[in-house]
Amino acid sequence: MIRNPIPWPNGARCAACVTFDMDADSLIHIGHPTDGHSRVAAISMLQYGPKVAIPRIVDSFAALGIKQTFFIPAWCIERYPAAIETILKGGHEIAHHGYLHEHPRELDDAQEEYWLDRASEVILRATGQRPRGWRAPLYNFSHRSADLLVARGFTYDASLMGDDQPYLLHSAMGRLVELPSHWGLDDWPQYVQSMDLDYMMPIRAPEQGLATFAQEFEASYAYGGLWVPVVHPFATGRLARWHVWHEFLAGLVARGDVWFAPMEDIAAHVLHLVASGAWSPRIDQLPYFTAPVTVR
Fold first, then answer.
1. CA–CA separation, 180 vs 112, rounded Å?
2. pTM
3. What is the pLDDT of residues 118-158, one digit of tens each?
4. Dihedrals φ, ψ of 276, to 5°?
5. Cα distance between residue 282 and residue 180, in whole Å
């Protein structure tokens, strides 16, 4: 069902990266700039991520023997250094997710460039490396984003939803590896209910919420795809939810033919295959459109 499937390392059936977006309370302050500071219950809910869930998740990944990728707004890197230290000690990748979870599509040219660069400098100071990957906050990849990322030496993007496996983005400035996901692999529709976040979904029981991700995994496993959950520490990292997630992930690791890797390693594998001629990915030329579409 996947045409031209990518070959994964060591004969793995599929690749997997459980990506955590550690937005913490940046969401409140960007969403409610005049009174976010007063929404104490929501702040406490979101701070559960860096304060409680991150140590739990990193311990879990250590027990499972896997290293993964955390997308973190730079404001949260500055605000929660203990969580960042925990992630780095676990050997995980920290990738770019804006500064205060600002939406690039809602910014002008100078603003998108400014916040991209400011956040990159924070990541460099915190990790000793410039970021290799980026996920646009709320998937708000703009018509400028690809050029800005390529010009700054980014290797991959993880914002788009155009395939079941990696593909390439070509822009006027060069090339990015796209490591796609989609809303069916995001935990907000399953677990997030918050009036302060303007998102009210019927909350599923932990196993019911996991079922969506599990079925998506089995399809990736059957056909050689890429499984990239987009999950949040304050939501999926809650005790009962992460309990069932840990048990599920332990079962996947035990299969022995699932390649769990940070996204930077997955992107490097794609580029190696392309350079060697061992596989030719699909290519999307960006931007898709240069002006509004009008029909007369």
1. 22
2. 0.97
3. 999 999 999 999 999 999 999 999 999 999 999 999 999 99
4. -85, -10
5. 13
